[in-house]
Amino acid sequence: MEPLLWCIKYRPKNWDEFVGQESTISQLKSLVESNTLQNMIFYGPTGTGKSAAADVFSKSILGDSFDANFKSLNIRDIWFMSMTDAKRTVQDLAKLDRDERSELDEYMSVVYREATAALKSKGRTSPPNRSQLLQEAIRLFASTVTVTDEKIKILVLDEADALSYSMQQALRRTMELYSNACRFILITPSLSGWSPAVISRCTVLKFPLLQTDEIIAHLSDIAKKENVSLNNEASMAIARESEGDLRRAINLLQIAATSGSTITEDIVYIHSETTLNRTAREIVSLSIDGSYSDARKMIRGLVAIDGYDPQEVLLAIKRDLVKRPFTPFTLDKVLSRVAEIDYRIIQGKNSFVHLAALLASLRNYTTELT
Ligand SMILES: Nc1ncnc2c1ncn2[C@@H]1O[C@H](COP(=O)(O)OP(=O)(O)OP(=O)(O)O)[C@@H](O)[C@H]1O
Ligand SMILES: [Mg+2]
After folding, report:
1. What are phi and psi of 3, to 5 degrees?
2. Does the CB atom of residue 20 touch ligand 1 within 6 A?
3. How far apart, in whole angstroms, are the C-alpha atoms of residue 328 and residue 334?
4. Considering only 77-91, 145-159, 198-212, 354-368, which range has the smallest mean pLDDT?
5. CATH 3.40.50.300 domain extents, the chain
6. What is the separation of C-alpha 327 from the centre of its chain, rounded to a whole number of angstroms?
7. What is the DSSP string of 285-344?
8. Which ligand 1 atom sits closest to the C-alpha of 6?
9. DSSP state of 175
10. Which atom of ligand 1 has the smallest separation from the CA of 247?
11. Residues pairing with 229 in the sheet
């Protein structure tokens, strides 16, 4: 059997198991106590408990009807699903083994059929496109009402920042149309890019980065349960490396524990450097040294071969840039350039072109000013 990831094993199952986030959790608890179900936005950086809180909140408020009345859809998973997969019929899926088809595959198969029927009823014979499919995926769960249900349903839209502005408008209409039957919890890293019309219809709850002492206390709890010894320096090192992301902290603890049952600061540092960070450092060094074409090849490898998200790569490059001994003036210029590229990646079609442009400009920025 696959060893269970500790961040899944220790995923909070009730409010008491949450670390930090006191004011948000206490707001959610009072909503449960008063049985108040509103549309909500949970926002904050990765690994801070947004998805876990959406689960615990929905379970607490829906009680026995949770299985029937709760659904969580990951917007990015749907958006990037291959059309060939989405098109599969229920019969096609039935031919596959249980572990070859996911709940999402089954749901999207129904969604595809419904979206095609809706187009047909408008006299259109073209197959549904990506955004029509996504809209139908949201609408389908929101609109179905089971006769025996007295309770309202909850639809969690995870990674909802992947919704375009026009899709947000469609979502706003769906929220209003099915407000008798369904409430939405939108999960997103930040509020920027969100339409004010959507924000104003939701209760907004913030999940800030976790504090160092909260991370350390949680790590020492897990270490005790897993029989590993973790000294102060080692847990400080994990807290520092994870930068407020508790999922990363727990993962780092688990990886470090593979070296033996005593974890030291050195062991943490050996394991904390990811391939992405290491490669990003090499890419930045090559670019600054003028070996642009090597840097470009490496970045293509990261995106096209290793499958890293271009924005993740940009973030790793930024993390490396801020550690370099630039003057404040140079750092200002370099970071403004990173912000510009970040914006272009979101707006543009070919993100590789924009990452390559960043690399090409790094040498100029740094030699001109050092
Ligand atoms: N506040 C927290 N209290 C306890 N555990 C937490 C907390 N935040 C994160 N974790 C741990 O990290 C894991 C990931 O948490 P979760 O999926 O809720 O993060 P998230 O905020 O939704 O992140 P992402 O934005 O990457 O989806 C959980 O399974 C749990 O082990
Ligand atoms: Mg999440």
Report:
1. -65, 135
2. yes
3. 10
4. 145-159
5. 21-206
6. 33
7. HHHHTT-HHHHHHHHHIIIIIS---HHHHHHHHHHHHHHS---HHHHHHHHHHHHHHHHH
8. 31
9. H
10. 12
11. 262
Whole-model pTM: value is: 0.79
Mutation test of ligand 1: which of 48, 185, 191 has the most ligand atoms closer than 8 Å to its C-beta?
Answer: 48
Distant-in-sequence, close-in-space partners of 300: CB < 8 Å, separation ≥ 6: 352
Q: Is the pLDDT of residue 2 over 60?
A: no
Structural tokens at position 35: 């049985």
Asked if pLDDT for residue 370 goes beyond 50, the answer is no
3-state secondary structure of 97: coil
Q: Could you read off the pLDDT of 219-254 as tens digits, one per residue?
A: 999 999 999 999 999 999 899 888 899 999 999 999
The torsion angles phi and psi of 171, rounded to 5 degrees, stand at -65, -40
State whether CATH 3.10.20.880 applies to domain 21-206: no
pLDDT in tens, 49-80: 999 999 999 999 999 889 989 999 999 999 88
Angle at 67 between CA 63 and CA 146, to 5 degrees: 95
Question: Topology of domain 212-272, per CATH?
Answer: Helicase, Ruva Protein; domain 3 (1.10.8)
User: 305-310: which pairs have CB atoms within 8 A and are 24 or more residues apart?
Assistant: 306/275, 308/276, 310/345, 310/351, 310/352, 310/354, 310/355
Q: Which of 272, 261, 266, 274 is nearest to 233 (CA)?
A: 266
Cα–ligand 1 centroid distance for 360 (angstroms): 37
The answer, yes or no, to whether any atom of ligand 1 lies below 6 A from the CB of 310, is: no
